[in-house]
Design brief:
This protein has 149 residues and is an alpha+beta fold. It has four helices and five strands. The protein starts with 6 loop residues before the first strand and ends in a 13-residue tail after the last helix.
Length: 149
Amino acid sequence: MAVDAVMIRALAESDRAAWEPLWQGYLTFYEATLTDEQTEITWNRLLDPAEPVFGLVAETDDGVKGLAHALPHLSTWAEVGYLYLEDLFVAPETRGLGLGRALIEDLYRIADQRGISRVYWATKHDNPARRLYDQLASESGFVQYRRSR
């Protein structure tokens, strides 16, 4: 599959049918399972202008083929805060065609417009997308710890 043009744009209500399989593919990649209720909560938050979290999609001539969800937040270390890229997924048939790069670069553009000083994300140590990430950002060297309930 060749991509002639990709458009990065805000997630819209009309994207639900295309977003859902990408979201499920993302969860499968990370070996995660969420309830239908949580997926609905996530979808509604992404579209609610009162919520800080927002979504972008990568659209080609063949439809929506990628997603990015990000959350701006304050930081004790920065006056203007940070932007956390929580979810990034590109349809397997379009990988290597620049959609992931375009989504991240659009997040950089949004961060710059908002005066946000840092864009960051976490991924699995064996994620093949790290080849792209290494071109676009520096690995922090931090290890993530979690308490899950």
